[in-house]
Amino acid sequence: MLKDFFNKKRKYAKVPSERQQPPAMSQGVMTKCPQCKTIVYTKELKKHQMICVNCGHHLPMTAYERIHSLIEEGTFVEYDADITSQDPLSFPEYEQKLEKDRQKTQLNEAVVTGEGEMDGSLVVIGVMDQRFRMGSMGSAVGEKITRAIERALEKERPFILFTASGGARMQEGVLSLMQMAKTSAALKKLEEAGLLFISVMTHPTTGGVSASFASLGDYNFAEPKALIGFAGRRIIEQTIRQELPEDFQTAEFLLKHGQLDRVVPRDEMKQTLSTVLDLHGYKSQ
Questions:
Q1: Stretch 90-114: mean pLDDT, rounded?
Q2: How confident is the model at residue 16 (pLDDT cuts 50, 70, 90)?
């Protein structure tokens, strides 16, 4: 049986030749804030970048909403939109779940990558979308991020990555864990070339994603109250047999303990990133 496993021809990622731009996501008319329970018009919420106007809670953004809030209109060019995960381990119901998420999100995978202009700076950007398999990292996600880093290296541009993930995708086993090393190795090449990598961790950034590329930025930023960590709170408490602080694994806790450079509210994000890019000389003349 073991011999058959290694001899079997396996599929890891499919890269079709034709590209298709996903349509805009449709949402409900009203949205309830999970923090203060206020019900607001979704249209108004989107005007405020999905920040609750009552309590300031940061609700999740889709990948394209995030990109449109940062990249100048008409300048975004997407990379590798048709790279999709396959089912290398024949995991029960995995293909059906992938297809269900494609239908629900109109995305082919849990990350969108591309290039565009941000306030006068040409950048390569990646944005993870937690609606697709909870933003989990499989072979396709790792491949897309690695290719985006390589494009940044080729074009000598800074790379900005927004993470939102539950970690490595268990349905792909060790192939998923391999993406931690692959993406980290690509970032090392970016560093050696003297190019900038800015990591922005959003809620949640956990597991193998937090333990690899998400924590390797020249600047590590996070949104307010974002959950950031490797193992879950309960697992840690049971292991060390101690009760953890109430704010453990929040962005504010990490900032206080020197693991982040800054916690940046979403409505200040573009200006903060633009300032950093300007300081590093990436503004177009």
A1: 97
A2: very low
Q: Which of 41, 59, 77 is the last residue of a domain?
A: 59
The whole-angstrom separation of Cα 152 and Cα 194 is 11
Looking at 38, 59, 80, the residue that finishes a domain is 59
Q: Which residues are annotated as a binding site for Zn(2+)?
A: 33, 36, 52, 55
Task: Give the tens place of pLDDT for each residue, 121-156.
Answer: 999 999 999 999 999 999 999 999 999 999 999 999
Percent of the chain whose pLDDT exceeds 70 = 90
| pLDDT mean across residues, the chain | 91
Spatial separation of the C-alpha atoms in residues 229 and 171, rounded to whole Å = 21
Task: Say yes or no to pLDDT of 27 above 90.
Answer: no
Same domain, 221 and 85: yes
Q: What's the CA gap between 142 and 175, in Å, rounded?
A: 10
Residues 80 and 39 in one domain: no
Written as six digits, the tokens of 183 are 């993406």
Assess whether 247 and 230 both reside in one domain.
yes
Note the pLDDT of residue 42: 93
DSSP 223-254: -TT-BEESS-HHHHHHHHTSPPPTTTTBHHHH
3-class SS letters over 207-218: HHHHCCHHHCCC
pTM over 0.85: yes
Q: Are 111 and 162 in contact (CB under 8 A)?
A: no
CB 78 within 8 A of CB 113: yes
Q: How many domains does the chain have?
A: 2
Is 221 among the domain residues? yes
Annotated binding site: 33, 36, 52, 55
Half-sphere exposure of 163 (CA within 13 A, CB side): 34
Tokens of 236: 């840690």
The CATH number given to whatever domain includes residue 273 is 3.90.226.10
Domain holding 274, by residue range, is 60-279
